[in-house]
Amino acid sequence: MLKYLETYFEFAHLGTNWRTEILAGVTTFLTMAYIVLVNPAILSAAGVPLAAATVATCLSAAFGSILMGIVARYPIALAPGMGLNAYFTYTVCLKMHIPWQTALGAVFLSGVIFLAITAGGIQQMILRSIPHELYAAVASGIGLFIAFIGFRNAGLVIGDPETLVGMGNLRNPTTALALLGLILMVALEIRKIRGSILIGVLTTTALAWACAFAILHSGALASGAPPTQAVAWAQNLLRWTPAPGGLHALAGTAFKLDIRGALNKGLLEIVFVFFFVDLFDNLGTLVAVTKRAGLIAADHSIPRLNRILFADATSSVFGSLAGTSTVTSYVESTAGVMAGGRSGVTAIVTGLLFLGAIGAAPFVGIVPPAATAPALILVGSLMLATITEIRWHDPLVAVPAFLTLVLIPLTYSIANGLGFGIIAWAVLHVAAGKATRKDWLLYLLAALFLLRFIYLGAS
Fold first, then answer.
1. CA-CA distances (angstroms) from residue 145 to 108, 205, 332?
2. Beta strands, E only, 322-410
3. Which of 45, 136, 319, 325 has the smallest set of CB atoms within 10 Å of its CB?
4. What is the spatial distance between Cα 322 and Cα 304, in angstroms, rounded to a whole number?
């Protein structure tokens, strides 16, 4: 049986093994496990029951990741998307006063449209129409994006009213531990030790808890003075308690979506946003992960692309039925790839861990940001390797690539960066008289992105 599975997942061709794939799957899970806590918190602001949202988050992530691993055989994990969940709650439900059940109906419809255009081959046409230099820019831009998230989670980069961002306090325990974890991970990576990221995350987690216990048992509060920053940090970490959960809680959201209500209220623009952002966030993440894993063919095509998109679309439909916002591919999958993951087994392991998290969801928060932040920073830095594929001496390529590269982290959106890059590519080629009829779909995409930016600007 194992030999058959190794053949099906092409272990020999990909140069991988069970140990590597399992470690990679665990690594991916650890870097994106925050969604188990964050997504329900966001959705609950729209009135979605917290316990049910937690189970729906775990179940949809498990379903999507396992489906991706089995059907598409790629190391890409899925979960309810950040950004899309915020749009679901704060724009659709709170600003537009749409009930969360109706918003779930809009998510369902966007997933069905996603499935339809996948079956029709339209998504594959879209992917082929985008110049490969922009793919390289997307991969590098996502590297900057997730590294920026890592810096923020580590407290190394903080908000500043005068300069937008500034440097954090290195004496902050989270920042100090994150930097220590980064040094450890890089040292292990230099030595080519498999599972370096996972080892770093687990070691930093253990060290964080040990430090917290040591601080609070050192007599730091004996004087009765206000707690120092270190003491406050330790108190906050040790204040962690299990969150509510349990499969039975899913009854609060399962099949509660209101499809008819979404149609009656004329929510086509909302359906369009869910679909459009999911499509391009998915394509951007897909390119970044497959490129980093070396799974893109020599002609810049992605094998089994139709299966990847099918898994993503089906997962969104499933997520809406379970009771969560749009499910999409996660850029944190690159952490698993960096840990050696190359086959669908990585995604399956991640999915199984999310399935287990339905019961263990209360304990996911035991891994502090100080442990996951260095993983994001390391992965982000290594993803910049694709930047060398861009022809920087040619303004027709360099400017669109630069806009894509920079605007992904600065606007906190893969879709925004890719959109500006495509628009710039189209405009510059038209201005230079180098537009061709065979690139008609690229210009159509540029027009759609422009309409999207106009729509977002008016909302």
1. 28, 23, 11
2. 327-329
3. 45
4. 27
Dihedral sign for Cα atoms in the order 341, 370, 366, 316: negative
Q: What are phi and psi of 160, to 5 degrees?
A: -140, 125
134's CB contacts (< 8 A; 6+ apart) are: 400, 401, 404, 418, 421, 422, 425
Kindly list the domain boundaries of the chain, sorted by start residue: 2-224+226-390, 391-459
Pick from 150-154, 190-194, 384-388: least confident: 190-194
- DSSP H helices, 155-267, are 173-190, 196-216, 229-238, 259-264
pLDDT exceeds cutoff 60 at 269: yes
Q: Which residue has the tokens 């998504």?
A: 123
Point out which residues pair with 159 in neighbouring strands: 165
Note the pLDDT tens digit of each residue in 124-153. 777 778 888 887 888 788 788 888 888 988
Q: 């623009």: which residue's tokens? A: 269
Q: Residues 110, 111, 116, 122: what is their CA dihedral angle, to the nearest 10 degrees?
A: 80
What contacts 325, CB < 8 A, 6 or more positions away?
39, 43, 80, 81, 84, 85, 87, 88, 89, 103, 104, 107, 319
